[in-house]
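Lab notebook, bench 4. The sequencing result for the construct came back, and we need a structural model before the next group meeting so we can plan mutations. Quick request posted to the team channel:

Model the 3D structure of this chain.
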Amino acid sequence: MSAKLIQGNEAVVYGAIKAGLKFFAGYPITPSTEIAEMCARELPKVGGVFIQMEDEISSVAACIGASLAGFRSMSATSGPGFSLMQENIGYAIMAEVPLVIVNVQRMGPSTGIATAPSQSDYMQVRWGTHGDHPMVSFAPFSVEECFTEVIRSIYWSERISSMVVLLLDEVVAHMREGIDIDSIKNVIEIPNRGPFPNERENYRPYKVDKDKGAKLPPLGMGYRFNVTGLVHDELGFPVEDPEKTKDLIKRLHNKIDAVESEIISYDERFTDDADVIIISYGSVARSSLRAVRELRKNNFKVGFFRPITVWPFPSKRVRELSKRIKKIVVAEMSMGQMVLEVERSVGGDCQINLIQGISGELISPDTIYKTASEVISR
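Done. Here's the predicted structure in token form:
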């Protein structure tokens, strides 16, 4: 494919198919619908299956079933649909079923404004389903990253045997940029599941090290085990043993903690001499980067930090930066959600200022420039 204008949502599908996507179940919802439409057209060409379900919770259920059958699976939605998915998200996390969900954020609460951008699902991604659970989520800010980060999402869902969220917003999903996806380098290779032992009779998929994910053989290969959302033993059958319960919940977290340094990624620029750093993600980070470049032209010592992995949050690096700068400006399209993670990471080492974007419009570079220059001057 030569370079052409590609939409963010389209790049997600190209990337997912590149990563071996073979099953998509979903329900149309603005501003993610193009992902479903394109999967309906493109998946059959590679031997895959698209199915439109009756709602979002059943979409995740279908993806769980397809994943258990050995097919790389994905669904896509927006805020209202993501809310409906939560029960089965929890099921996938507890049963350790590899699965990717794309959440293209839009203005809320409730139906909100279907075509307006927002970043107010940030905390829901981490805490949306009940119980103690881990979460991995990546947030691209360009069309090319929509391609590469969905591949990385599928990779990590398979590697840690868990659900992963690709977190977009309406601006990133619908903007177009000229890219040649065939020329994108450093695309992560995704290994097949397994290998699994030849001895099938006594195989226990949940009998793994305390910092590893379950190893679920595709159904139909002759391995017998149970899949449940209940606390379970090594064969997947429900238990109420306090020690086994504690060990399972800890392992669900440990399997991510053990590879956190590999999962976490961020984009950091102009921080060596910075007195102030602007932190943002997704489409707002594009405005922030423009504002930082303009501020530096006018001799303001301002740096730029963008979490690409938004969960787990790159707390260690933010903490390191906070010890040698004076102030942080957080810009996000919400009343303030990611700023809470910044505050937790910084722990009072420097002043934090928030730019809220709650009008249903992208925060402009001018707004960020004005606020940052005022913060610097105080």
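The first strand starts at residue 4 and ends at 7.
Will bring this to the meeting.
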